[in-house]
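Batch manifest, entry 17 of 40.
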Amino acid sequence: MMKKQIYSKYDKSLIPSLPKVVFQGRIHVVISRAQAEKAVSFLLSQPILGLDTETRPSFSKGTNYKVSLLQVATRDMCFLFRLNRIGLTPAIVRLLEDTTVPKIGLSWHDDLNGLHKLGKFDNGLFIDIQNHVGEIGIEDLSLQKLYANLFGQCISKSQRLTNWERDILDDRQKQYAATDAWACIMIYEELQRLKQTGDYELVKIED
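Output type: structure tokens
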């Protein structure tokens, strides 16, 4: 059996030519407290969650926006909590403070800082992928490079700088947001699998 070949650093120039990957599951947009309550009850019954946030980009100096969107994915479903509409509801605080379900993020420290600006909560069980990639010798820290390295597919970043506070998110925004959260689960589980099985060969890329 051939071992999976991974690279200590992935060549960014190769990414655009890879096949695109998008989240194939169902996406639910949450715009009321009642919806948030139902969504969180469902999410906290799951074995693992992927999380990410989006913030409206600022194109002028001195203008900063608060976190607009919290996306929370299972392997086949994603909820987009429109925080610019509903804020940190008691249900969302319950989700963020939960210590039973592992919540996987990437560069999650920055997301948490943004969420703390919306309200007070104690950090629950969060796992940051960036703290674990080094365990198998990967030096990259970006979601796009990690996904390309582990799965040979490209996550598009074309929607990142769109307006996350617009009245209605369009389908491309929803897909982008869901894909980023879901990809955190995929990357983390693959890292765990490779670490446990040793089923990989690391190609060291020198600078």
